[in-house]
Amino acid sequence: MVVYEYEKDGAEIYRQSFATIRAEAELGGLPDDVARVAVRMIHACGQVDLVEDIACSPAVVQRAREALDAGAPVLCDAQMVASGITRRRLPKDNDVLCTLDDPRTPGLAAELGTTRTAAALELWRDRLDGAVVAIGNAPTALFHLLEMVAAGGPRPAAVLGIPVGFIGAAESKDALAASDLEFLVVRGRRGGSAITAAAVNAIASDAE
Ligand SMILES: C/C1=C2N=C(/C=C3N=C(/C(C)=C4\N[C@@](C)([C@@H]5N=C1[C@](C)(CCC(=O)O)[C@H]5CC(=O)O)[C@@](C)(CC(=O)O)[C@@H]4CCC(=O)O)[C@@](C)(CC(=O)O)[C@@H]\3CCC(=O)O)C(C)(C)[C@@H]/2CCC(=O)O
């Protein structure tokens, strides 16, 4: 029988991971609350140089946390983001919502001539004011959110805008960073549902 020698204690795996990230990543330039979020984002992708591409408004973590403490929902562009959010960490049993699979979404996408992920945001309108938005997959969703807000729509408390990819990902994140919303982004092509869920989990947690 083959027996491998490896760490089997989950808490110890986390402890060693976070210690490694703190030793290897250049977190010094970030405020403490953002550094704590960055550690968890790096943990989700295994790339310590992710920190070089993280950009945010100074109060984003505080505003997002205040919103969660006030019971705000977390609105997600993809089920993958929503699934990655650890419900027991959320301070007020906050709703975690993804409207991508709502039966109205395909019709809205056809009507608006856009992707399903972008069209699904139209169904956020009555929950968006003061919400925490977590976009981890779709650049079109992030662009659509910015268009809705620019047109006078409800304003979220904070936007974790971390879509991944080659078409529109970098551009949508640059547009968010240039907006007047509280934001957290990873500049460039990197991002994704796991990193975005990890950012929400870090903000929702009291400890690392
Ligand atoms: C163009 C799209 C991109 N998707 C990427 C990467 C991943 N997507 C996955 C999955 C399972 C889903 N992607 C959809 C959101 C789907 N992806 C798109 C769209 C065609 C358009 C979005 C956009 O450009 O803004 C989008 C469909 C739409 O009409 O909106 C998904 C809904 C497709 C589907 O299954 O129906 C689905 C999300 C399901 C959910 O969680 O709710 C991947 C797992 C790969 C795959 O299996 O296809 C992967 C996950 C990445 C992640 O971490 O989230 C890109 C690379 C982001 C790409 C957009 C940018 C680009 O450069 O192409």
Automatic annotation (TrEMBL):
InterPro entries: Cbl_synth_CobH/CbiC, CobH/CbiC_sf. It comes from the Bacteria. Residues 12-204 form the Cobalamin biosynthesis precorrin-8X methylmutase CobH/CbiC domain. It holds the Pfam family CbiC. Belongs to the CobH/CbiC family. This is Precorrin-8X methylmutase. Pathway: Cofactor biosynthesis; adenosylcobalamin biosynthesis. Keywords: Cobalamin biosynthesis, Isomerase. Its EC number is 5.4.99.61. It comes from Blastococcus carthaginiensis. GO terms for molecular function: precorrin-8X methylmutase activity.
